[in-house]
Amino acid sequence: xxxxxxxxxxxxxxxxxxxxxxxxxxxxxxxxxxxxxxxxxxxxxxxxxxxxxxxxxxxxxxxxxxxxxxxxxxxxxxxxxxxxxxxxxxxxxxxxxxxxxxxxxxxxxxxxxxxxxxxxxxxxxxxxxxxxxxxxxxxxxxxxxxxxxxxxxxxxxxxxxxxxxxxxxxxxxxxxxxxxxxxxxxxxxxxxxxxxxxxxxxxxxxxxxxxxxxxxxxxxxxxxxxxxxxxxxxxxxxxxxxxxxxxxxxxxxxxxxxxxxxxx
Length: 264
Fold this sequence. Notes:
2 domains, 0% strand, 264 residues, mainly alpha
């Protein structure tokens, strides 16, 4: 009872920190530690400590700044809630193991990557580099604990293969469409996915799920007039969502696919 509650509250706190990263990292002249206090983007007034309680403060303030009454973006509570719920799912999926830590690190990276790309059409190099360093460390720890060198090799192969495959897709797509088909950030993100998930069949599932979801969402946006055929649609959120899906349930999904095609 208390452990899931703690995990949920911990997720809310991490989600609040991720909101700081999401707002500050893409903006020049700002960092996650400067300025020290959070502030309202509209009136620049520092936010009181009692107004920074994850998710709850948004509800108590009715989604408005205490000082200027400007609307607070719903992205803030959604990020906090999504982080808390995903942390809880990870706990029930993996328990207190190194795989649990591995999944938490990966999800904590994917959330700001997805939101920043959706808002600004960029995937910051700082998040990718941080992810590669932390990812290498955690997969080394898991490989050591299991005495399984192959586990480490598949992750390293996955990182190289992930970046290479998406780079090839980007080159071919650009040649066919005669315009830039994919950003460099997506290629680096796929390398990160490969490091955390492995090479085969994980990368194939990430590409398939991200392509399908991207096509469905993109078509929907065009139908409703939110986007047109020439509009850029960030691919990072779809790669991130597909990676989370494979992280949590990749084995069972692959098994069901093999059963469906009669290979299992």
